[in-house]
Amino acid sequence: MTDAHDVLVLGTGVPEAVLSAALSRAGRRVLHVDTHDYYGADWASLTLTELLAWGEQHGAHVAFPRDAHLPDALARLDRHYSLSVRPALLPAHGPMIEALVRSNVAAYATFRLLDRVGVYDAAAQRVDRVPSSKSEIFRHKHISLADKRRLMRFLERALGAPAASTAPPEPLAHTLDALQLDARLQRAVQYGVCLAWNGEETTDTALARTRHALAGLGRYGDAAFLVGQYGGAGELAQGFCRASAVQGATFVLGHGIQSLTRVGDRWELRLDGVDETFSAAQLACSAEARAAATGDAAPIVAPLAYEHLGIVVADAPIDWVRLGEEPATLETALLVLPPGSVAGVDNAVMVLMQGEGTFSCPKGQYVYYLVTHAPHSDASRLQGAVDVLMQLLEPAEQAREPGAGEDAQPATPTHAAPVPLVTLFHARPIYDRAEVPQTTPASVVDTSVACPYGTQRSSLFLEPRGPFQRIPNPAETLDLAVEQAEHAFWRLYTPAARDAALDAAAARRQHHDPAEYQGRGGAEPDLTRAPPHADVEFLAPRDEEDS
């Protein structure tokens, strides 16, 4: 094992894992260290006992509502759980999908389509199913023909090129009012299609996100999003780390950091239980990881907000029939509780359901991830949302009349809400970090800093993304993680190298696009000319011999 490396990466979260794979593929000698004994860091997919340890370490509130402590029946199934501490949906079109393909992680990562999206109507105590395609819109029984046409006009606007305007951003609610959609359909569009957090969402950010999602429809099936199996994001992080190791990176997990110091022009690292001293020219990690490793004070930055996560393990699925939908056996679903559905919660609560078919829980159980954000970190904020969710699940065993036979139906259906097997609540600060421009390779980069708005955000995805909301939702975090990784990658090089890679990516796009040759009399593509490449690229396209 060599002790001299080009780049030291701390933490195996998704941004760091993608960065590690890209650096190794570019020929850099990478040392990748994580003090945890599992991959994923704060994106990890954990067994039940690992989740309990994670919760204790991170100040999360964990409970077993049916028992005082972890029951033996669940402990015996420990390895059957793969619970994500950063639940996410994968857009079928975007930087993460491209990164999975180029790194070959897609060859062994597995996914399911998102089966259904529903929006909760608190007043009517029902869930309105959100159509996922044009054909579903026109087959929908509860949307009038006039509303179907209005809805199609909105989707056509979303799919069109963004219009340049100097006018102040218009709230999405005003745009939907102008379309004369009824309140029920407006709610479905705002929270089920646009996945807005609240009524303050602007039309331009909502349309940009909707355009990005709709572009993935039909690519892998009749859904705009995929759900990663075995916990999702943590499995992807491990896959990118594996791809990095295949390219020659050195990984050290499960050892505490004794010291990390800057000596001359290199970083020197000593680990608990390892005699060797490691060194690297550059360091890549989050600001928090750097502060913990060096012992320096962490930068004082006020959180933009707090992301609230709830994890609920239950033995009942959503009762779609009672909620007015047709019977269905679903392994994945997204349920949105709009603002006002839960007392004390000002933003939408997004609930991602995963069943046994996602390999995240044992047979007969379901995992529900609840995500919202708020200005404060109070741990009980999502308890009301869990109470609402429990009322939407298939009821627990109903009481029968005394002396009635086993086949007798309950005299008075009670729809008693099931009690969760496990609950976890955690609040994570969300920061809005900025950084100074650079012209030379940096000795240290913050992997949690996103690419500034207004610049090309990813060479993997050249299509314009448009404006985006400051607090991402679970359908945006994976793509943003790739963009964070690429931003860090280019800070380890130079802006000139980044520009050359973007030019090469744009040239390759034209090189492969047959439409470039349509209408040119007699012009044919030069099939013998190799696609253009730059000297340094972020996850360079795989050559045939790499496949």
Automatic annotation (TrEMBL):
One of its GO terms (biological process) is small GTPase-mediated signal transduction. Pfam families: GDI (PF00996). Residues 532-547 have a biased composition (Basic and acidic residues). InterPro entries: FAD/NAD-bd_sf, GDP_dissociation_inhibitor. Residues 505-547 are annotated as: Disordered. One of its GO terms (cellular component) is cytosol. Belongs to the Rab GDI family. PANTHER family: CHM, RAB ESCORT PROTEIN 1 (PTHR11787:SF4), RAB GDP-DISSOCIATION INHIBITOR (PTHR11787). This is Rab proteins geranylgeranyltransferase component A.
